[in-house]
Design a protein that fits this description.
alpha/beta, GMP Synthetase, Chain A, domain 3, Rossmann fold, Helicase, Ruva Protein, domain 3, five-stranded parallel β-sheet, three-stranded mixed β-sheet, about 10% strand, binds adenosine-5'-diphosphate, binds magnesium ion
């Protein structure tokens, strides 16, 4: 019996009986391994997958198996982590199950809706929801505040001021909150606007002496979502007008949500009265999320776009993206586009090439410095050295010593690399910890690991495993 054919056949029967997401999550990297005395043995990549498949889907799998081969009486499971390796020939390619037609609906940028009285808003993009905003430990508060606002507009989180760097999810959160409000109350007048557009409108109104109409117009808003308010910097007359609009809405208990790339107090040339008003309700910061959250975001984007990519590849992308979620998403889509054009499965090497082309990776670094700094409080060089030695099964003196055999060299270089990238230690200091080595030796070791990791999935897995043990 051809087990691959058998398994594909079985999956085809199974697919319509469970949700696409669950199907992909739990049957990716599975295989039929053997059939003996009526026992069909299924290979799964992790103990976790085994638990899920056996607890949730055993009846369905068994039923489908019997339809194809009535000899099957029972199922057994074996965990083979090698099934996660794309080159494992026992796997069935799940690409066959991807629905091509269900891409998210695109809304023309800049399209507008009118609320009468000249009040207009850019349409909210339905792609943004509070549900598909992935919440990790770093962005729980901004998300929770937006949830609260959508449930209780004009309540204690008014105004809600969300700030953070480029591509960290400000527009997503603003629009998602608007979408959620409209879902709960379709008659609300939710106006989304960039501060830039607001300034243009104000300038026009002033030029045409329509400022009264302008003010009156905004009186009808139930919720104002004002994006990128840093655009107000040093624009005095716009600030003046906005100040009145703000007060009027605020006093009528209308919700105001503002985003900015900096906190109110750091905006330059901003009227003190506005600074204090922006800080009245709640000010929350969006920061670049940790590795796990980045992984979860990538997995969510894969589901949204109905694409299946190996976790190892996603880990590589998450691990090497250091600035923004937009960049993370950009790399993922680029990787997918390339593999579709070339009709190949992405590999670590092809992903590294894409990232190089986008000129976004200079070296492999795990986390943004701010997080690494925070971590260095709880992690010492001593901890890392102990951990790495234990992981590679060498003694500390072998790790720190001069033996140049590979079994000691590689762990030594990985250890230096982790001290540099996860604890942000200077090359100098690392050199001292490693028996007074020169800082250029350390630099060389770190670069070597960065380079090697691009082509060596095992190394990436080792590094990730150690980082997980470090609690990263
Ligand atoms: P900003 O307005 O801060 O520059 P965006 O809101 O445009 O950033 O976010 C950039 C991209 O990253 C968007 O596609 C957005 O959906 C995505 N994104 C950001 N944060 C998250 C998150 N926590 N979960 C899911 N997607 C996110
Ligand atoms: Mg934005």
């Amino acid at each position: 019996m051809d087990f691959k054919d058998f398994w594909l056949n079985l999956l085809k029967r199974l697919y319509p009986t469970i949700s696409h997401q669950n199907f992909v999550s739990w049957f990716k990297n599975t295989a039929a391994l053997s059939l003996k005395d009526g026992v069909l043995t299924i290979g799964v990549p992790t103990p976790f997958a085994q638990k899920w498949v056996s607890e949730k889907y055993e009846t369905k799998v068994l039923q489908a198996a019997r339809e194809i081969n009535p000899e099957v009486k029972e199922l057994a499971y074996e965990v083979h982590s090698s099934l996660e390796d794309p080159t494992d020939t026992r796997r069935v390619n799940l690409d066959l199950f991807i629905k091509k037609e269900s891409k998210p609906r695109k809304v023309a940028r800049g399209k507008e809706i009118s609320y009468g009285n000249g009040l207009r808003s850019r349409t909210l993009n339905p792609r943004y929801s509070l549900n598909n905003f992935v919440v990790g430990k770093d962005n729980r508060l901004p998300h929770a505040a937006c949830m609260a606002v959508s449930n209780m507009p004009g309540g204690i989180y008014n105004p809600l001021f969300v700030y953070g760097g480029v591509g960290l999810g400000k527009t997503h959160l603003l629009q998602a909150t608007g979408n959620e409000m409209l879902k709960l109350n379709p008659n609300m007048k939710v106006v989304y606007m960039s501060a830039e557009k607001f300034v243009t409108e104000i300038v026009e109104a002033i030029g045409k002496r329509y400022t009264k109409e302008f003010k009156a117009k905004y009186r009808h808003v139930d919720c104002l979502l004002l994006d990128d308010v840093q655009f107000f910097e040093r624009k005095d007359s716009s600030q003046q007008e906005f100040f009145h609009t703000f007060d009027e809405l605020y006093n009528a208990n209308k919700q105001i949500l503002i985003s900015s790339d900096r906190p109110p107090s750091e905006l330059e040339g901003l009227d003190d009265r506005l600074v204090s008003r922006f800080s009245m309700g709640m000010v929350v910061e969006l920061i670049f999320p940790d590795f796990e959250t980045r992984m979860a975001i990538l997995q969510t984007k894969c589901q949204e776009h109905r694409i299946i990519i190996d976790n190892e590849i996603l880990e590589f992308i998450a691990y090497n993206t250091q600035t923004s979620i937009r960049e993370l998403e950009g790399i993922l889509l680029q990787v997918v586009a390339q593999s579709q054009i070339e009709k190949t499965t992405p590999t670590l090497r092809s992903v590294a090439d894409v990232m190089k082309k986008l000129n976004r990776t200079k070296e492999i670094v795990g986390l943004d410095e701010r997080i690494a700094e925070a971590r260095s409080v709880i992690r010492t060089a001593e901890d890392v050295i102990t951990l790495v030695a234990a992981y590679f099964n060498v003694t500390k003196s072998e790790l720190l010593g001069n033996d140049r055999r590979r079994e000691y060299m590689m762990p030594r270089q990985v250890c230096m690399y982790l001290l540099r990238h996860e604890l942000s230690q200077s090359y100098q200091k690392i050199g001292e910890d490693f028996g007074g080595r020169n800082h250029t030796t350390v630099l060389h070791a770190c670069n070597k690991v960065s380079e090697a990791a691009k082509a060596d999935p095992k190394l990436v897995r080792d590094i990730n495993a150690i980082k997980r043990e470090m609690g990263l």
